[in-house]
Design a protein that fits this description.
The protein is an all-alpha fold. The protein is 45% helix and 0% strand. It has one domain: Non-ribosomal Peptide Synthetase Peptidyl Carrier Protein, Chain A (Orthogonal Bundle), CATH 1.10.1200. The protein has three helices and no strands. It is globular and about 30 Å long.
């Protein structure tokens, strides 16, 4: 299931907040999250997951998410979209 434009924008907002990026920081839909410009490490990923849970009112159980979800901004948004209803 592909993410809606709203989900993509909310995920980008979570990424900006989690990584303490300025609102003007460009977060392209296909930007790599691991190994890319911002090169998220394991602590960054944990923070992003926690903030996604808060923002979207979901619970991400261990084993639900794999590295593919953090391939790009869009794959992360697609993963969040498949979690179901959001706030």
């Amino acid at each position: 299931m592909s993410a809606t434009a709203e989900t993509l924008l909310r995920v980008k907002s979570v990424l900006r907040n989690s990584l303490k990026l300025d609102e003007s920081a460009l977060l392209a839909d296909e930007m790599p999250l691991v190994g890319g410009e911002y090169d998220l490490d394991s602590l960054d990923i944990l923070l992003v997951i926690t903030n996604i849970e808060k923002e979207f009112g979901v619970r991400i159980s261990e084993g639900t998410m794999d590295r593919k979800a953090f391939a790009t901004t869009r794959t992360l948004a697609d993963f969040v979209q498949q979690l179901g209803p959001t706030k």
